[in-house]
Amino acid sequence: MKPLSEIVFVGLGLSSEKDISLKGLEEIKTASYVFIETYTSFMPNLSIERLERLCGKRLETVSRRELEEENGEKILNAAMKGKAVLLVPGDPLIATTHITLRIQAEKMGIKTRIVHGASIISAAIGLSGLHNYKFGKTVTIPFPEGSYLPETPYHVIQQNKQLGLHTLCLLDVKAGKKMFMTINQALGILRRLEDKIGKKLISDKTLTVGIARAGAEDCKVRAGALKELEKYDFGEPPHTLIFPGRLHFMEAEALKVLAGASEESLRELIE
Question: What global pTM score does this model have?
């Protein structure tokens, strides 16, 4: 009997190998080939060795080059022989790399399925206490490339604020170089963009929410004026930032109770 040609994209969740769902674990145990990528996001407590013991399978790590430059050929070739599983930090299709792979697989007649996992997008919003439907466009703050400083994060935050919307800022990850942007680094970049663009978007008093290690037991959430967060010790990455827009009174209360925000830092944004 010809083996089923199939790729199952399985989300690993946010922090450790314990975050994988029971359904995801079952998919691994019945797979012929199991691949894992660790470059699109940083899971601070993930151990591939422990995950291998948990599922009873050997995991093959695939690089950004193999998935992007080589168009996932290794996984596609494996899927032509049987069931292949690709393990992805967070939720599998948040990274556009994996959407491209899924489209290519379907074009080749390879069946694809998704087992979702917890995503930083929903986790950070939930931890902040802000209302999901009041978020605008999400943006990534990238590491500067030499003297080049991308302005997109500044403009996205500005556009969302003009509409009264919150902005979720994902912070850059360069896993191959073990570089994981911190909240302090991201705020420094936004300060530089303010000096360059000068629209008075970023200042000492700008309300900011910082989240560190979402999904982990030592998760930290802190809200306050930007100058306060610059001094706050969030600990190890991964880190995430939120810039609130207009606040419903329940959102303001959540930031006070759940994230330690002061009345003064919230006053101007409460509807």
Answer: 0.93
